[in-house]
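Dear support,

I submitted the protein below through the web form. The confirmation email said the job was done, but the results page showed an empty box. After a refresh the structure appeared. I'm attaching both so you can tell me whether what I see now is the final result or a partial one.
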Amino acid sequence: MTTQPTYSDTAATDHLLTTTRSVRRRLDLDRAVPRELIEECIDIAMQAPMGGNVVRCRWMVVDDPDIRRKIADHYRSAYRSYRVSAKERSAAAAGVDNTRIFASADHLAEVLDRVPVHLIPCHVAQAAGTDEYALSTLYGSVMPATWSLMLALRSRGLGSSLTTLHLQESAEIRSLLGIPDTATQIALIPIAWYTGNEFRRVKRTPAEHVTYWNHWKTRSAP
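What the results page shows now:
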């Protein structure tokens, strides 16, 4: 019987996993991000689990200032309508204060064109249907690698955030970047050097409050 290896530095791994935040405000808008560093992080991301061990993800990286500006214009167009509805939802949720989150999101929309790198993860195909299986299969082939990418960026001092608002004008973005109709855009990830002092954990709902065992809403016995 063979013994499976264990990772001795669990604390370092846990720290990376629990302190990788969406960074929207503390981004260095003036410091270039080397292409080789982006490719290094993509290499790491490509080690993520992939269905059938088949590579279906593609990485659309944009560092051209003029193209970034056009992407940002489409993003802001979508953000304006989203901002109104999001504020209404927040007001309806009693006891929820999203003031800081809105301020952060407002800032990103304002400066998005200046963020040095825009990265759009894509799937090479379209979903085979709209049912849960088809959609889960499609996004499940790209999202694990996308999260691995964000972790790799974070470990190298880069900040990022996963956004999707540009997808409201996905046809225009597709045309701008030459993305074929057969492919699916998954997200937009702005990337820049992080200007803060440290990443921190945030308060989240404890596992026992959101974990069910064997049946919906059945929690573990005390």
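Response: this is the final, complete result; the empty box was a page-load delay. The chain has a mean pLDDT of 90.
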